[in-house]
Amino acid sequence: MKRQIVAFSLLSVLVGAAQAQQARPMTAQAKPAAQPQAAGRQNLAALRGVVEQYLQTQSAGMPGEVGVKVGAVDQRLSLAACPAPEAFQQPGARPWGKTTVGVRCTAPSWTIYIQAQVSVTADYVVAAVPLAQGQPLDPSQLTLMKGDIAAMPNGIITDVARAVGRTPMVSLPAGTALRIDTLRSRPVVQQGQAVQLVSRGSNFSVSGEAKAINNAGEGQVAQARTRSGIVVSGTAREGGIVEVML
After folding, report:
1. Residue 211 pairs with which residues in a beta bridge?
2. Does 85 have pLDDT greater than 90?
3. Is residue 156 a contact partner of residue 177, using CB atoms and an 8 Å limit?
4. Bridge-partner residues for 67, per DSSP?
5. Which residues of the chain form CATH 3.90.1210.10?
6. Phi, psi at residue 54, to the nearest 5°?
7. What pLDDT digit, counting tens, does each position of 155-187 carry?
8. For residue 119, what is the DSSP state?
9. What are the residue ranges of CATH 2.30.30.760 in the chain?
C-alpha cells in the first residue's frame, strides 16, 4: 500500500512539472545580427558624396541656383577601402550639365567613374525683337529669361550689359538666346582713329600717338602706325588705347 502511495505522489510531481512547463510563455527567438560591411572594403555611398562635393565646388562661380544629382554606383563593385578618395575630370570636361566624374585612390590603387547631372537655373539674355546683322544692340532690344543654362551651349550671356553695344554676326529672330561667340565686340579702336600707344615693361611705362589701321574690340589685337611709319601691334583698350607689352 505504501509503495502505491509513493508511486502516486511521484507521478503527481512529474505531471505538475510538465503542466508548468507547458504554461510557461515561449520567449521570442533572437533575430540574427545584421551582417556588418566586409572589413577593409570601400563604402560606395561615400564615393557619391565625394563626387557631389567636387561638383558643388566646381560650380560655385556659376550664376544662379546650382543643383547636383549624382548617379548610382554599381553595388556589385568591391573596392579596397581608401583613406582619401579624390574626384577628378578629364581635361576639357564641363563640371555642369550631364557629366562624368572620376574617383581615384592612390593606395590602394583603383579608379571608377560616376555619372552626374548638374543644373544651373539662372537668368539669360534673349532677343526681345528680331536683331539685324551688324547693328549695335541696345537694352530695349534685349530681355531676360530664366532657365537651366547648364543645358545650353557654352558662352550663354547672363548679363545684359555684356551684350549692349555688340553687333550680331547674323540676323537673329526674337527669342534667341544670345551667346558671346555670335556677337562682335563694340569697337573701342576704329580704323583711322588717333590712338594712344602705351608701352609697359618692367618698372617703366611710355606712351605716344599713332593712327589705328584696323577696328578692334576690347581685348582684341589692334594695329597702329606711328608718326615714323612703324606699324605696331597691341591690345585694344577702352578710350582709344593700344597697349603694347614689352
Report:
1. 194, 225
2. yes
3. yes
4. 119
5. 121-184
6. -60, -45
7. 999 999 999 989 999 999 999 999 999 998 878
8. E
9. 187-245
The Cα–Cα gap between 163 and 124 comes to: 11
Query: Which three three-digit cell numbers place residue 108?
Result: 590602394
Angle at 131 between CA 222 and CA 191, to 5 degrees: 20
Instruction: Assess contact for 207 and 199: CB atoms under 8 A.
Output: yes
Long-range CB contact pairs, 150-156, < 8 A, 24+: 150/62, 150/96, 150/97, 150/118, 150/119, 150/120, 151/97, 151/119, 152/124, 152/177, 153/179, 154/94, 154/179, 154/181, 155/179, 155/180, 155/181, 155/182, 156/124, 156/125
3-state secondary structure 127-196: ECCCECCCCCCCHHHEEEEEEEHHHCCCCECCCHHHHCCCEECCCECCCCECEHHHEECCEEECCCCEEE
CATH no., domain 187-245: 2.30.30.760
CATH number attached to the domain at 121-184 = 3.90.1210.10
Q: Report which residue type is found at 47.
A: L
Distance CA 143, CA 46 (A): 43
Q: How many residues does the chain have?
A: 246
3-class state of residue 216 by DSSP: strand
CA distances from 69 to 12, 43, 54, 116 (A): 74, 19, 12, 6
C-alpha cell at position 229: 611709319
- Quick one: cell of 87? 574626384
Task: Please report which confidence band the pLDDT of residue 39 belongs to, taking 50, 70 and 90 as the band edges.
Answer: low
